[in-house]
Amino acid sequence: MKAARLHEGATALRIEEVDAPEVRPGSVLVRVQTVFMSPFMAGLVDGSEEFLTPPRPFTPGMDATGTVLGFGPDIAGLAVGQLVYCDSYYESPTEGAADFGFIGNFGIGEDSPEMLRRWPDGALAEQMLLPAECVVPIPEAVTASDAVLCRLGWLGTAYGAFTKVGLAPGESVAVLGGTGLVGWSGVLVALAMGAESVFAMGRRKDALEEIAGLSPRVQAGTTLPSRQTFDVVLSAIEAEDASAIEAALPSLNRGGRLVAVGVTARPLAVPTDLIVGLDLTVRGSLWFERRQATELLDMIATGTLDLSSIEIDEYPLTDVGKALAAARSRRGAFQQVVVRC
After folding, report:
1. What angle do CA 106, 112, 118 make, to 5 degrees?
2. Percent of the chain at pLDDT above 70?
3. In this structure, what DSSP letter does residue 187 have?
4. Which residues, other chains included, contact 107 with Cβ-Cβ below 8 Å and sequence gap of 6+?
5. Is residue 253 very low, low, confident or very high in pLDDT (cuts 50, 70, 90)?
6. Which of 47, 185, 263, 273 lies at 20 to 30 Å from 140 by C-alpha?
7. Tens of pLDDT, residues 98-119
8. What CA–CA distance (Å, rounded) separates 22 from 25?
């Protein structure tokens, strides 16, 4: 089969013929159809961003759709030919283990190198082997294209964050980093969850104008409005500076919640008099629960989560280098770069 491989010392992917993975207990073999290309992937490949990756050579790539080719004898509830979403996030079921990260991409916990050795290869290949718990069936009622559905992890990141802080219908939301992939995913998800209003804050003015056109309930700008308050703030900011997050705290209503899915190099300064006085919640969120992928798929099937604004920019696996460059450049607010394997 063809796979995009990253070799030791290389700064670009190489398309190679490799042996197809073999099914083992606890695993599912998937014929990959589409792979979502995030801007971070270019930095992982060329080394400009530091990631704890699997031993090289390996096949990177996360967030994919495909069809089931086979599964271990201990797996139930799947059928060959079934369309599935491939969730690359994995963590050890052992209590207390810091063994978690994204298969075929990077580790997070201190024990994650072992996980990356067990599951080294990601989605940028014609076939992918995953732990069974990472495979989510896509119901027939979901009519969105596979090129759209491979974004599910980024929608899920926002959805998981909102559910952790109890976003309820009728509440007001601000999204920091609103022009990024997670940020405007958060705008879409907040609307689907019934937010009364959503304010997207970001740096790209052209993208903010597009995002503001999504719904009458959406506003956008480069700074938060001085006299507007919010029930929930979602921070998708990845930056050196945490000042934008700190500045958003006073905009929360009493009992408000701030949840961060991005990280900043400088630690967040949280004034205790403010969080005590306003009874605020400040927390982080990493990824989402697997059942929530099914909940999102149900929302997509009913049209509650409207993904019609997504614009697909598709490349074949043999042009993966061009796909990486396109994902890094982010030409439009709603551009989604996809590799079709």
Report:
1. 90
2. 100
3. H
4. 52, 53, 100, 101, 113, 115, 116
5. very high
6. 185
7. 889 999 999 998 889 989 999 9
8. 10
User: Whose CA is closest to 111, among 97, 131, 95, 122?
Assistant: 97
Helix, strand, or coil (residue 120): coil
**Comparing C-alpha atoms, which of 45, 42, 137 is closest to residue 82?**
137
Residue partners of 145: CB distance under 8 A and separation at least 6: 312
Check if the beta carbon of residue 286 is closer than 8 Å to that of residue 129: no
State residue 311's pLDDT score.
Answer: 95
The residue-averaged pLDDT of 36-44 equals 94
**97 Cβ contact partners less than 8 Å away, ≥ 6 residues apart:** 91, 109, 111
DSSP 209-263: HHHHTT-TTEEEESS--TT--EEEEEE---BS--HHHHHHGGGEEEEEEEEE-S-
- Quick one: 189 exposed, middle or buried, by C-beta within 10 A (0-12, 13-18, 19+)? buried
Instruction: Give the span between the Cα atoms of 128 and 122, in whole angstroms.
Output: 7
Angle at 139 (CA atoms; ends 135, 145), nearest 5 degrees: 90
pLDDT tens digits along 263-298: 999 999 999 999 999 999 999 999 999 999 999 999
How many CB atoms are closer than 10 A to CB 124?
30
Which pLDDT does position 332 carry in this prediction? Answer: 73
DSSP string, 274-339: HHHHTT-EEEE--S--HHHHHHHHHHHHHTSS--TT-EEEEEEGGGHHHHHHHHHH--STTEEEEE
The SS3 assignment for 64 reads strand
- Span between the terminal Cα atoms of the chain, in Å: 10
Let me know: does 184 contact 154? Beta carbons within 8 Å: no
Residue type (1 letter), 307:
L
CB distance 34 to 64 below 8 Å: yes
Q: Identify the helix (H) or strand (E) that includes residue 269.
A: none
